Task: structure prediction
Amino acid sequence: MRSFGALILVMVAILSPTDGFAHGVVGDYIFLEPLVAEDPTPANEFNVAVPSWSKTSDGNDFALGYSVEKILYLDDEYMPRLSVGIENDWSCQWPRNGPGRHGFNDIEIFSKWAFFVSQDHEFLLSAAALLSVPAGNKSVEEQNHTSLGPELLWEKGLGDLPNRTGIKYLRPFGFQGDFGYLPALGGHTSHLMFADQVVEYSLPYLSNSVRDIGLKFPLRDLFLFSEFNYSQLITGPSQQTFPSIVATPGIAYVGYNFELSLGTQLALNRASVPNTHAVVIGLLDIFYDSIVPRLGNWTINRGFPQ
Result:
C-alpha cells in the first residue's frame, strides 16, 4: 500500500502540461513506447509498471512487469545509437481447475543498436540481441531453457509527405515494428518466432507540425494506436505450435517525463481466442534522463553532461 501511495505521488509530481518530449525522437516525430512490441529507439527509460490481466479458457492470469534501459553511446549529432536493458515480471495464474501459481518469470536481457537513422525522413533501423534466462519460478515461466536470438526493428514517420490540404493529415501517422527469432540453447522446446507492427497517430505532431486545431492538455499529448502482434513456437510441445495473432488497440499520454498507456487485445485467429476472452494491458514508463539528467545522460563515449 505504501508503494502504491508513493507511485501516486510520483505521478502527481510529474503530470503537468508540457510541449517538450524526451523519448523516441527521430526527426520531428516522437515515437511512443509500445505495449507489446519492442521500441526500436535506444532510450533512457524505466518501465515502472507494466500490468496485464487476461481471462482465458483455463482461468485468469495477472502479471506485473518492469524493465530498465540505458543509452550507452551517442553519435556526433547526439542521436542515441546503443543501449542495454533488462526486464522481468511477477506472474500470477489462477487455473479454473487446480491451485494458483505465482512467481517471477524469465529474465530478459537485451542490447539494441540503431545502425541507420534518417532524420529528414523520420526513419530508423535497429538490431537487437535478446537473451532469455529461466531464473524464476518454473511453474509460471514461459520457457525453462535459456534462449538467445536476434531481432530487427524499424520505425517510420510520415512527416516527409507534402503539407497540403487533405494529405497533410496523414503526416501524424507513425509506424513501428519488429521481427525476431529466439531459439533455445538447450532442450527440445522454445524456438520462438515473433513479429509486431504498430500503427500510431500522434496528436502532438498534428498540433505542432501540421495544424493547431485547438487541443488542450491532456488531449494535445495523446497518441491513438493499434499493435498487431504475432508469435509462434516453431518447434515445441504438441498443440502449442499454432500461431497467435492479436490486435492490441490503445491510447497513450506521452509527456516530457513519462508515458501512460492503456490497451486491450482482440483475437485475430482461432488459436489466440482461448487466451483473449478479456484482456487489459497498461504501461507507466518514466524517462529518467529528464528527471536526473546528469546520471541519466551519461554515456560511454561522452561521459557525464557538462
